[in-house]
Specification:
This protein has about 230 residues and is an alpha/beta fold. The chain has one domain: HUPs (Rossmann fold, 3-Layer(aba) Sandwich). Helix content is about 40%, strand content about 10%. The chain has 8 helices and 5 strands. Strands 3-2-1-4-5 form a 5-stranded parallel β-sheet, with helices on both faces. The model has no long low-confidence stretch (mean pLDDT about 90).
Length: about 230
Amino acid sequence: MKTVVICSGGLDSVSLAHMVAAEHELVRLVSFDYGQRHRKELDFAAKCAARLGVPHDLIDMRAIGAHLSGSALTDDVDVPDGHYAEETMRITVVPNRNAIMLAIAFGIAAAQKADAVATAVHGGDHFIYPDCRPGFVSAFEEMQRHALDGYAAVRLFTPFVHLPKSAIVTAGAKHGTPFAETWSCYKGGTTHCGRCGTCVERREAFHLAGVADPTIYADSDFWKVAVAAAGH
């Protein structure tokens, strides 16, 4: 299955890229600059493409992202600390982001005569992000079937959509993903902050998977407090 992987440079998408490279035929990575404050993640996507020996398409979506306002990822709004599944994390939603990115990736896949577009949405995303849920995945794939009817047949590959992030860590470890060469923190500092939702979720996932976490966190213990407060 010739597959295009949407790769942000984060733990999930880099692990997915390594899995696809091992189990299918990885043809290219596609990344998006939508003005995110943690743009440094894109450097890790580029490293992943180089490591796996495939082209890397970096799509400039900054003009579009400027209009998708109200998110802590793109606006001058503080990224909240705490567990990923807390209500406060809704401020990190960028409206319609995944739908826009997927539509572009499907166009690229069709032009490149690829069989699939892979994205690393997972079970932990469902509470906060509507465009990561199984219903969206099914509906989007059906929409694209109509959009490309008679031109190309491209499927949407989401192997993690029903799985927790810890399962992604397990899969990543199986396929030799260099976890230190991934970026999750939404604050985009010098090191992972250890306090934002993605840092807490990342640290918790390694713990649950029983895999050593090579990440350097500015606050390496906050995740325990956040997990306990969220009742996890």
